[in-house]
Amino acid sequence: MSVKVPKDRTIDNTIALFKDGYEFVPKRVQSHHLDVYETRLLGEKVALISGEEGAKLFYDTDRMNRNGALPSRVLKTLFGEDAIQTMDGDAHTHRKLLFMSLMTPEALENLRELTTTYWERFTGKWQGMKKVVLYDEVRELLCRTACEWAGVPLTEKEVDKRTRDLSNMIDGFSAIGPKHIESRKARKRSEKWIEDLIKKIREGKLELKEGTALYEMAVHRDLDGQLLDTRMAAIELLNVIRPLIAISKFLTFGAVAFEDYPETKPQVAEDDDYLFHFAQEVRRYYPFVPFLGARVDHDFTWQQYPFKEGQLVIIDIYGTNHDPKLWEKPDEFQPERFQDWKGGLFDLIPQGGGDYYKGHRCPGEWPTLEVLQASFRFMSKHLHYTVPKQDYSYNLRKMPALPKSGFIMKNVSMK
Question: Where does residue 365 fall: left (phi above 0), alpha (psi -120 to 50 degrees), or beta otherwise?
Answer without folding.
Answer: alpha
